[in-house]
Amino acid sequence: MTYKFLSEVDGIKVEGIEAPGDKSNSQFRFTTKGKTMEFKRDFLYSMIMLYGLPEQADDMVVVSDKKIRTVRRQLNIKAKKDLKKGEIIVVEIDFPVSEEVADKIKSFKIK
Q1: At a CB cut-off of 8 Å and minimum separation 6, what does 31 contact?
Q2: pTM for this prediction
Q3: Which of the 8 DSSP states describes residue 88?
Q4: Distance CA 8, CA 88 (A)
Q5: What is the tens place of the pLDDT at every residue in 29-73?
Q6: Which residue in 20, 33, 62, 107 is a FRET match for 93, CA 20 to 30 A apart?
């Protein structure tokens, strides 16, 4: 594994794993005074949530105050196998959309 330098805080060098396709830095390496420790992102997050101050935990959790509306759309799917050729399958799907977007939607098509 190779690590990429991210920052240095209070004399502690912080590096993130540099793996193909891993843009989230799923693992970190901390180095100070010649000692190195490696931690996974989930472990670090758990430590902050368990031992951090309540305000710090609140800062880690993203909260949005956007109003959400459920939008229902119908999909028409033409079967190619396992059903009669040309038979159409109708599926209704519900998905969340912010109110400002839902107000602008008149109709749209999914292909």
Answers
A1: 12, 13, 15
A2: 0.49
A3: E
A4: 59
A5: 999 999 999 999 889 889 888 898 888 888 877 777 778 888 888
A6: 62
Task: Decide: 32 and 64 in contact? Cβ < 8 Å.
Answer: no
Give the whole-angstrom CA distance, residue 78 versus residue 27. Answer: 44
**Residue 111 and residue 106: Cα distance in Å, rounded?**
17
CB–CB of 15/5 below 8 Å?
Answer: yes
- The pLDDT value recorded for residue 73 is 81
Helices (H) and strands (E) in the chain, counts: 3, 6
Contact yes or no for 76/90 (Cβ under 8 A): yes
- What's the distance, CA 53 to chain centroid? 24
